[in-house]
Design a protein that fits this description.
59% of the residues lie in helices and 8% in strands. With 439 residues, it is α+β, with helices and mostly antiparallel strands.
């Protein structure tokens, strides 16, 4: 953004006409009696739980469960060190997004990005892949993940549309910002223990002709995806369990606060750019004045140079806020909306479960037996609860780390800015001090 103010955007490589609070562990206690209240809507609908004695080493959707407490450390440095060590030991899939290229065709102009994959997983035929993808391909992947993994939080993509005339979507600055966001989007999926094994993700990373796969469509949804897909809005949830109600309230407050910070930060950047324009006109005035005042020419030139140095420092600060600070805020605003959508899906499944429980209770049989479809619906609710809580915990951990780094970076950039301005102004003090007259 600031770079655009400083000069014309640099052109991209082109192919020519050829062609994005600590949460309790989801299964920290395996007692079915402790899990029961969250799934049973009211005391009068209590029925025998069909999975009370099931082995909880895995969830109904096949996701393995680790009931051990996550490791913790007392310092940010140790936490980052621990994360790096774990990454190096356990990761077997690495994905990067780079090398944006502009394609000019008869009907449209668009940007593609190189997606490089390195892996040792048996699901891949080769250890390394390199394909080119455009934004709509990333959007296709996200939609497929939402369809096939409805119980999980899908990372958000950067917003597709920009205001024409305000942001040039083909400028180097905009494309680089989008490339970083798309790279982060794929890395979030890669780090997820379930999403990273999704068949559509595999196809996205490896298929040379992704359009051919898109035309085929998805042959079969997963059982979980299919069951959730056909849940209608005909069921009304009595009340959301307290822990999920707390998550919903937290997300509302969190997105509201971030939205406020985002709006204020954008106003600050706008005012900084306007101030920058004034400074660029302000500094040269002292230089031209120095040409008329021989005795003051040296200090006046010094003031002009000082203001020029402050301009450079302010431009760097504004650029850092535009390229590093704002994208993180926007990603987490979109992230909170994604989490709200998963909560709504969970509520729909619970509402369906409550309705079916009530229908069975009204049959007034001497020894009521829970029908198979009610058991399956109960499994879906439990799967939603466990997956959502696990993803919320993962999201909270990522958020803490991301915002620590963001705020530390912002503090460091502001310190550098003021130090540069201080150094610039201190450099002209000797020029302004009275010098002893020579006899």
């Amino acid at each position: 953004m600031s770079g655009g103010a400083a000069g014309a955007p640099k052109p991209l490589p082109s192919s020519g006409p050829k062609s994005l609070r600590e949460m309790p562990h989801p299964l920290a206690t395996s007692s079915s009696e402790e899990m029961g209240p969250a799934l049973t809507p009211s005391p009068d609908l209590l029925l025998p739980r069909s999975i009370a004695d099931k082995d909880l080493s895995s969830l109904p959707n096949g996701t393995p469960v680790d009931t051990s407490s996550p490791a913790s450390s007392s310092s940010l440095l140790n936490r980052l060190q621990l994360d790096d060590d774990l990454d190096g030991e356990t990761r077997d899939l690495f994905v990067t997004v780079d090398d944006p290229k502009k394609h000019v065709c008869t009907m449209e102009t668009y940007i593609t990005y190189r997606v490089t994959t390195k892996t040792t997983r048996a699901e891949f035929d080769l250890p390394e892949y390199s394909v080119r993808r455009r934004y709509q391909d990333f959007d296709w992947l996200r939609n497929k993940l939402e369809e096939s993994q409805p119980t999980h939080l899908i990372p958000p993509l950067p917003e597709k549309f920009v205001v024409k005339g305000v942001v040039d979507r083909f400028s180097e600055e905009f494309v680089e910002t989008r490339r970083k966001a798309l790279d982060k989007f794929l890395k979030r999926i890669t780090d997820h223990p379930v999403l990273s094994f999704n068949e559509h993700f595999n196809v996205f990373l490896t298929a040379k002709d992704l359009n051919a796969y898109k035309r085929q469509g998805m042959a079969l949804l997963s059982k979980m995806g299919e069951s959730v897909k056909y849940v209608t809005g005909g069921y009304k949830l009595r009340s959301r369990p307290l822990e999920f109600a707390a998550i919903g309230e937290y997300l509302d407050t969190f997105s509201l606060k971030l939205g406020t910070i985002d709006r204020i930060a954008q106003r600050i950047i706008k005012e900084q750019l306007e101030y920058l324009v004034e400074l660029r006109e302000y500094g040269p005035v002292y230089s031209t004045w120095g040409g008329l005042e021989v005795e003051l020419s040296e200090p006046l030139e010094g003031v002009s140079a000082c203001i020029g140095n402050c301009c450079t420092a302010l431009e760097e600060l504004t650029e850092d806020m535009t390229e590093d600070f704002l994208p993180v805020l926007r990603e987490y605003i979109l992230y909170s909306e994604s989490m709200k959508n998963v909560l709504k899906k969970r509520d729909q499944v619970q509402a369906e479960y409550e309705a079916k429980l009530e229908a069975v209770a009204l049959k007034k049989e001497d020894r009521p037996k829970v029908p198979t479809d009610v058991e399956k619906c109960q499994d879906r609710v439990e799967c939603f609860n466990a997956d959502l809580k696990a993803d919320m915990e993962r999201w909270q951990n990522n958020k803490r780390q991301d915002f620590r780094q963001l705020l530390m970076g912002m503090a460091d950039k502001n310190i550098q800015y003021y130090e540069k301005c201080l150094t610039a102004w201190e450099s002209i003090i000797p020029l302004l001090q009275d010098k002893p007259e020579t006899k």
